[in-house]
Specification:
Number of helices of chain B: 17
Number of domains of chain B: 2
Radius of gyration of chain A: 28 Å
Order of helices and strands of chain A: EEEEEEEEEHHHHHEEHHHHHHH
Oligomer: heterodimer
Strand order of the largest sheet of chain A: 6-5-8-9
Distance between the termini of chain A: 59 Å
Radius of gyration of chain B: 22 Å
Structural class of chain A: alpha+beta
Number of strands of chain A: 11
Shape of chain B: globular
Order of helices and strands of chain B: HHHHHHEHEHHHEHHHHEHHH
Shape of chain A: elongated
CATH architecture of the largest domain in chain B: Orthogonal Bundle
Largest interface: A-B, 44 and 49 residues
Structural class of chain B: mainly alpha
Largest sheet of chain B: 2 strands, antiparallel
CATH architecture of the largest domain in chain A: Orthogonal Bundle
Strand order of the largest sheet of chain B: 1-4
C-alpha cells in the first residue's frame, strides 16, 4: 500500500524574492511521497478567507504542485484545502486539519503544514519495529563491543579504569573528519589513516603518561583521577578545536534504506550494512588474535596475573604497549563507525563511555570476551528498550542494567567470582 | 590590563555562591573519598536530587519551602541507599562506575520530556525560593564586606588582624618547630622513613607555607574591601557559608569520634576493620548517606541562590570540579574542601578574567581565542590541574601525603 504523505507549506511572498513589492500572500508546494519518490499534486484547490469569513482568494496547484496567492494585507486568515479536488488515492491524514488558521504580519514568514495519508509511524506493527530496532541495536552493540575491548584489556592488564577511553573514540572520528572533510581524502582512505593515528596516539599516551606513572608507583585511584582530568582536558580541547556542532563526513551522508536480504522485513541503509560487516570481521579477527597468537595469549596471561606472567618470561611492558595501541586503534574505528552512522561531535566518545562501562561490567570487567558479549548485549538492549521507554531515556535503561548486574552477578557474564573484592 | 579588577573578581569568586556550594559538595566528597575511601563520582547526582527534591515539592505539590528542604534531605538519603546497596560490597572502582552512571540517570530523567509536568523538562523549575527571600534580614542595598561598620577601626579590622596573626603563627610554628610556647608536638612517634620526610619538609618552605603567607598578605594589605554583594546574594551567602561552617564542625567532631575512626580504618584497610568485628558495609553506607546529604545541601544552596533549577547544571563535570577543589585544598582535612573550593574558584576567575582582558587589550589574537573559547579553556585548565595535582601533589595544599595513599587492588 503506497504511503501517501502530502505536505502543504504556506509561505509569505514578502520574503527576499519580492521584498520591494511588500505584498502579503501565501505560496507553497504540494508533494505526495509514493514509494520514496516525491510526486507533485496537481489541481488541488485552496481557498483563503479573512477573519470575517469572506473569501479573499482561491488558487489551484500547477503541474509542479506549486501555488502562489497574493492576499490583501496583514491580518488573520484561514486556508482550506478542498478535499474533493484532491487526485485519486490522496486523502487527508486528519480531516479536522483541512482548515488551518494563521495570522499574516507585515513581513512575517509563517509556514504551515498539512499532513495527508496514513501515519507511517502508527502503521508499523510492534514486530516490525522490534526487527528494525534489533538491526539498529546490533549495529550499536557491535560498535560498543569494538570500543570496549581496549577499555577492558587496559583494565585487565594495568588495573586502570580509564575514563579517558571515550576520548580515544572521539579522536578517531575527529581525525577522520578532518582528513575527509578538510583535506579532501576519500573516506575509504581517511578511515584507515585515522585508525592508525588513533592507535599511535593511544600508544604515545601510554608511553608518555601512563608508563611513567606506573613506574613511579602511582596508586590506581590516583591514576583513575588522572584519567578523569585527561578526559576533561581532551574533551574540551576537541570542543575548542572542532566546535559544538555535529558534522557529517563528506561522503555517504544521507542514504535511503534498502530491503535487507530482500525479505521485506527490515530496512537498512547500505552504509549501516557495511558498518555491521566491518564490525563482525574486526571482532572475529580480534577474537582469533587473542586466542590463537602468542601476543594474544600473553595479553590474557598479563590480565590474569601480571606478576606470574612476568616471572614466566613475558615482557609485561611490551604487552601493555600493544594493548594500548590495539585498544586505541579499535576505539578510533568505533569512532569512525559512529560518525558514519550518525554524525561527528566533540562529546560522542564520552556519551559512549558509560555504555562501554555498562557493557564490560555486564560481560565481566577485565576480560576481552566479556567486553565483546556485554557491549553487544547492551547495544541491542538499548535499542529494543525504546519499544517501551521514550527514546531520550534509552541510555537510562542500559545504566539501570549495569546497576542490576552488579546486584545479582557482580563478576559479569564471563567473569570469575574471585576477581571481585 | 586592569589587574585591580582581575584581583577584585577573583576575591569575589572566592566568597561567591559557586565557592559556597562547591565547598559543600566537596565536604560531602571528603567524607566519602577522603575519610572512607569511597570513590563517589556521582556527587552531581546528589546535588541534583537535593535541588529537585525541594523544587518538585514546592512547585508541583505546592508545599512549603521548609518542607521541601526536608524532602531534599530524604531524597538524598534514599539515593545514597540505592547507590550503596549494589556496590558497597564490591571493589572501589565499581562504585566509581555506578555512581557516575547513576548521576547521569538522574540528570536524564529530570530533563526528560516524559516527566516535564513534574520536573519542568530541559527548562527546569523556577519560582520556588520566594519564602526564603521573604525572611531576608538584610535591607535593600549593596553590601561591601568591609563597610559593615562606618569609618574608623571596626570589628572586621580586628578580625582581619587576628586572622592574619593566626596564619603567621602557623607558618612560624611550621618553620621553627618547638620554638613557640604551647606549640604542638607530634603525638605519634613517626617511623624512621616518616621522620626523614617530615624533617625534610620542615627545612624548606613548602607550598602550604607559601599559600598561607599569600593569604595572610592579601588579608592584611587588601582586606576584603572590594567584595560587594546585593542584599539577596548576601542572605544566601550567609546561609551557604553558615552551612559550610556547620558541616565542617560536624565533620571535625565526627571524625574525632569512634565512628570517624572506624571510617578511617576502613579507608586504610577494610579487611582489618572487618576482622575487628566492624560491619564495614554498614559504616560505608552511613558515610555515603552523610556525605550525600551534605552534597544535597550544596545543591539547595546553589538553586536557591540562582532561583532556578536547570538539569544541565548537574552534569558530570560538576563532580570533577568538586574533586579538583577537594584535592587542591587537601583530602581528609576538615578545611581542605572549604579552602580548596575558595582557591579553586578564585584561580578560575583569575584565569578567565586575565585571558578576557588580555584578549581585549590585544595581547591574545582573536584567531587563537574567541570569548566562547575562554569558557572552554576553564574545563581544560581544571583537567590539567587535576592531572598535575594527582601526579605531583596528591595531598593538595594542606593534606597529608601518607593519609591519602589509597589503592583499589589489594
Amino acid at each position: 500500500m503506497p504511503v501517501v504523505l502530502l505536505v502543504l507549506s504556506l509561505c509569505l511572498l514578502a520574503g527576499t524574492a519580492s521584498a520591494q513589492e511588500r505584498a502579503e500572500g501565501v505560496r507553497g508546494t504540494l508533494s505526495n511521497e509514493v514509494d520514496d519518490e516525491d510526486v507533485p499534486v496537481e489541481g488541488a484547490v485552496i481557498t483563503v478567507a479573512d477573519a470575517s469569513g469572506e473569501e479573499v482568494g482561491e488558487v489551484t496547484s500547477d503541474e509542479d504542485g506549486s501555488f502562489a496567492l497574493d492576499l490583501p494585507g496583514p491580518g488573520a486568515y484561514t486556508a482550506t484545502i478542498d478535499v474533493e479536488s484532491l487526485p485519486e488515492g490522496v486523502a487527508l491524514r486528519d480531516e479536522a486539519r483541512a482548515t488551518l488558521s494563521f495570522t499574516l504580519n507585515p513581513g512575517q514568514n509563517r509556514p504551515l503544514n498539512f499532513f495527508f495519508g496514513e501515519d507511517t509511524r502508527q502503521r508499523a506493527t510492534t514486530t516490525d519495529r522490534a526487527l528494525q530496532l534489533g538491526v539498529e541495536g546490533i549495529k550499536l552493540g557491535l560498535i560498543i563491543a569494538i570500543t570496549s575491548v581496549g577499555l577492558s584489556l587496559i583494565f585487565g592488564t594495568t588495573g586502570l579504569t580509564n575514563f579517558a577511553h571515550g576520548e580515544l573514540v572521539t579522536f578517531g572520528a575527529l581525525v577522520c573528519w578532518y582528513l575527509n572533510f578538510e583535506a579532501g581524502i576519500p573516506l575509504l582512505w581517511a578511515a584507515p589513516l585515522a585508525i592508525v593515528l588513533g592507535g599511535a596516539a593511544s600508544g604515545l599516551l601510554d608511553r608518555g603518561l601512563w608508563r611513567p606513572l606506573r613506574a613511579r608507583g602511582t596508586g590506581l585511584i590516583a591514576m583513575l583521577v588522572v584519567s578523569i582530568g585527561l578526559s576533561l582536558l581532551l574533551r574540551y580541547l576537541f570542543l575548542y578545536q572542532f566546535g559544538g556542532r555535529t558534522r557529517p563526513f563528506a561522503e555517504y551522508g544521507r542514504q535511503r534504506q534498502v530491503d535487507f536480504l530482500g525479505l521485506g522485513l527490515v530496512g537498512i541503509t547500505p552504509k549501516d550494512m557495511v558498518s555491521i560487516g566491518i564490525s563482525v570481521v574486526v571482532l572475529v579477527t580480534v577474537a582469533l588474535l587473542i586466542t590463537r597468537t602468542r601476543m594474544g595469549k600473553a595479553m590474557r596471561a598479563v590480565a590474569d596475573n601480571p606478576d606470574l606472567a612476568a616471572s614466566s618470561g613475558i615482557d609485561v611492558q611490551r604487552v601493555i604497549s600493544v594493548v594500548w595501541i590495539v585498544g586505541g586503534a579499535l576505539a578510533a574505528l568505533g569512532g569512525v563507525l559512529v560518525g558514519l552512522g550518525e554524525e561527528v561531535s566533540w562529546q560522542m566518545g564520552f556519551q559512549l563511555l558509560l555504555l562501554m562501562f555498562a557493557g564490560i561490567t555486564l560481560g565481566g570487567l577485565g576480560t576481552a570476551f566479556g567486553a565483546l558479549v556485554g557491549g553487544f548485549v547492551i547495544g541491542l538492549f538499548i535499542n529494543l528498550s525504546t519499544l517501551v521507554v521514550p527514546t531520550e531515556l534509552k541510555n537510562v535503561g542500559a545504566l539501570l542494567v549495569l546497576v542490576l548486574v552488579l546486584l545479582v552477578r557482580p563478576q559479569g557474564i564471563l567473569g570469575r567470582a574471585e576477581r571481585v573484592g | 590590563m586592569d589587574w585591580g579588577a582581575i584581583v577584585q573578581n577573583a576575591l569575589r569568586a572566592a566568597f561567591g555562591l559557586e565557592a559556597a556550594y562547591f565547598a559543600l559538595a566537596a565536604i560531602g566528597l571528603n567524607v566519602h573519598f577522603g575519610y572512607t575511601g569511597l570513590l563517589n563520582f556521582g556527587q552531581a547526582g546528589f546535588l541534583a536530587v537535593g535541588a529537585y527534591g525541594m523544587g518538585i515539592a514546592v512547585t508541583y505539590f505546592g508545599w512549603s519551602l521548609w518542607v521541601g528542604i526536608g524532602v531534599s534531605i530524604l531524597a538524598a538519603v534514599v539515593f545514597a541507599l540505592l547507590l550503596g546497596l549494589p556496590t558497597l560490597r564490591l571493589r572501589a572502582d565499581y562504585l566509581a562506575i555506578v555512581t557516575i552512571a547513576s548521576a547521569e540517570i538522574v540528570r536524564l530523567v529530570f530533563r526528560s520530556a516524559r516527566f516535564q509536568p513534574v520536573t519542568g523538562g530541559s527548562a527546569g523549575l523556577q519560582n520556588f525560593a520566594g519564602e526564603f527571600y521573604r525572611i531576608n534580614p538584610y535591607d535593600t542595598g549593596v553590601y561591601r564586606l568591609e563597610a559593615v561598620y562606618a569609618g574608623g577601626v571596626g570589628p572586621f579590622d580586628v578580625v582581619r588582624v587576628l586572622l592574619a596573626l593566626a596564619l603567621l603563627w602557623i607558618v612560624v610554628d611550621r618553620l621553627l618547630p618547638g620554638r613557640l610556647p604551647g606549640s604542638r608536638r607530634p603525638r605519634v612517634a613517626p617511623s624512621a622513613a616518616d621522620a626523614d620526610e617530615s624533617v625534610a619538609s620542615r627545612e624548606v618552605i613548602g607550598l602550604r607555607e607559601i599559600v598561607l603567607l599569600a593569604v595572610a598578605a592579601v588579608i592584611l594589605v587588601v582586606g576584603l574591601s572590594p567584595v560587594a554583594f546585593n542584599e539577596r546574594r548576601m542572605w544566601i551567602l550567609t546561609v551557604g557559608w553558615g552551612l559550610v561552617a556547620l558541616t565542617s564542625l560536624l565533620v571535625f567532631l565526627l571524625m574525632r569520634s569512634p565512628w570517624g575512626r572506624v571510617l578511617k580504618s576502613i579507608r586504610e584497610d577494610e579487611d582489618a576493620a572487618r576482622s575487628l568485628g566492624k560491619n564495614v558495609v554498614s559504616y560505608k553506607m552511613q558515610s555515603l548517606v552523610f556525605g550525600g546529604v551534605i552534597g544535597a545541601l550544596g545543591g539547595l544552596v546553589f538553586v536557591i541562590g540562582n532561583q532556578s533549577i536547570q538539569p544541565d547544571n548537574f552534569g558530570t563535570p560538576i563532580t570533577f570540579f568538586a574533586y579538583a577543589a577537594l584535592i587542591l585544598g587537601g583530602t581528609a582535612r576538615v578545611f581542605g574542601p572549604v579552602v580548596g573550593s575558595m582557591i579553586f574558584w578564585a584561580l578560575l576567575s583569575f584565569a578567565e578574567n586575565a585571558l578576557q582582558q588580555g584578549r581585549e587589550a590585544g595581547y591574545i589574537s582573536n584567531d587563537f581565542l574567541t570569548s566562547t573559547q575562554i569558557g572552554q579553556l576553564r574545563f581544560m585548565l581544571v583537567g590539567v590541574g587535576l592531572m598535575l595535582l594527582m601526579v605531583f601533589r596528591p595531598q593538595g595544599i594542606f593534606g597529608n601525603r601518607r593519609e591519602i595513599d589509597l589503592s583499589v587492588r589489594r
